[in-house]
């Protein structure tokens, strides 16, 4: 990795919010307002959005990666890592590993004993970093089957962003049943097993 990179908290770099939104929305499209709502509460006491910046002399730093660490109110000894992303041109250079390592260090500093995440299609990446499959966590107290159902409805069959930014069960249930038209049936997935959402866990030392 030859590039000079740094990791900063989003709330310390508010001028990079727009770039962060673009990075996330290019991968997982959603409205700017919804995206803003999911990252603007970054603060020093969690949730924290971490940015991986590539430092370019005399030019504004490029936001090349993001990951968000949140508390799990029902499981206070664990934290959740989500929205892990490296921009397409910088993948395969070790930045994803670096970002996750920094997240884990920060989580350990907060006193968490383990880190949880969910993924559809990046199991091998997380396994390489020492994550193992585990039971679902309920961030909102919702049954995992309900959340999974919503996740599977992602556009274009693209793996959606992992769970925690999904609307809570009671709200989404109301919207899907009461106000939204039913979506057309999704085409058959060619690889159901590899895109099924799983939860993964890593104990922190
Ligand atoms: C997943 C992602 C963050 C990985 O970032 P990255 O910078 O490319 O990963 P790294 O270069 O640090 O890879 C670390 C290791 O994982 C491996 N790896 C990375 N992506 C992998 C994949 N999709 N499948 C299998 N192994 C993978 C690398 O080969 C490397 O292995 P090595 O240490 O033995 O050489 C990146 O591909 C990404 O942003 N994807 C789109 C968003 C996304 O799906 N995020 C995950 C949401 S759960």
UniProtKB/TrEMBL annotation:
Residue ranges of every copy of the N-acetyltransferase domain listed in the record: 5-152
Any single Pfam family the record assigns to this protein: Acetyltransf_1
GO molecular function: acetyl-CoA binding; N-acetyltransferase activity
Gene Ontology cellular component annotations, sorted alphabetically: cytoplasm
CDD domains in alphabetical order: NAT_SF
Entry protein name: N-acetyltransferase domain-containing protein
Organism field: Daphnia galeata
Lineage of source species: Eukaryota, Metazoa, Ecdysozoa, Arthropoda, Crustacea
């Amino acid at each position: 990795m030859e590039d000079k990179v740094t990791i900063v908290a989003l709330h310390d770099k508010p001028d990079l919010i727009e770039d962060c939104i673009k990075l996330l929305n290019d991968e997982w499209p959603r409205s700017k307002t919804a995206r803003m709502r999911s990252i603007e509460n970054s603060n020093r006491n969690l949730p924290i959005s971490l940015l991986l910046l590539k430092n370019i002399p005399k030019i504004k730093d490029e936001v090349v990666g993001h990951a968000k660490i949140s508390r799990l109110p029902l499981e206070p000894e664990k934290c959740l890592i989500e929205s892990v992303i490296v921009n397409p041109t910088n993948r395969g250079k070790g930045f994803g590993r670096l970002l996750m390592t920094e997240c884990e260090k920060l989580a350990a500093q907060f006193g968490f004993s383990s880190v949880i995440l969910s993924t559809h299609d990046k199991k091998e990446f997380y396994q390489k970093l020492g994550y193992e499959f585990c039971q679902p966590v309920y961030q909102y107290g919702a049954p995992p089957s309900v959340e999974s159902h919503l996740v599977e409805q992602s556009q274009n069959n693209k793996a959606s962003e992992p769970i925690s930014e999904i609307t809570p069960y009671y709200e989404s249930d109301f919207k899907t049943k009461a106000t939204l038209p039913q979506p057309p049936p999704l085409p058959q997935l060619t690889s159901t097993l590899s895109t099924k959402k799983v939860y993964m866990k890593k104990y922190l030392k």
